Amino acid sequence: MADNTSTPYTIEISPITKPAGQFQWAIRRNGKLIERSDRPHPTEAKAEASALAAVERSMHSAGSGRW
């Protein structure tokens, strides 16, 4: 039996140039951009934590038909 429990979400963390040394994130669902960070994050770990929180919010709202 195949395991089909993988999530359709992808989180991309990338450095930004202004302000230098900070990071942003983007969330894609099945390859389509659904949300992007609106502020820079001081570390890659903090950007990832923020993105994971956004995925959690979107998964809960997906059940209500928002996305």
Give a verbal description of the structure:
There is one protein chain. The protein is of the alpha+beta class and 67 residues long. It has one domain (9-61). The chain has 1 helix and 3 strands; from the N terminus they run E-E-E-H. It has a 3-stranded antiparallel beta sheet, with helices on one face. It is elongated and about 35 Å long.
Describe this protein with a few key phrases.
alpha+beta; 31% strand; 67 residues
Summarize the structure.
This is DUF1508 domain-containing protein. By secondary structure, the protein is an alpha+beta fold.
Helix-strand sequence:
EEEH
Number of helices: 1
- The number of strands is 3
Major β-sheet profile: 3 strands, antiparallel
* Strand content range: 25-35%
Can you tell me the overall shape? elongated
State the secondary-structure class: alpha+beta
Rounded radius of gyration (Å): 13 Å
- Which residues form runs of ≥5 with pLDDT under 50? none
Our count of domains comes out at 1
Helix content: 25-40%
Q: Strands of the biggest beta sheet: in what spatial order? A: 1-2-3
Q: Roughly how many Å apart are the termini? A: 30 Å
Mean pLDDT across the residues is 86
Please describe the topology of this protein:
Layout: E1 9-16, E2 22-29, E3 32-36, H1 44-62
Antiparallel strand pairs: 1-2, 2-3
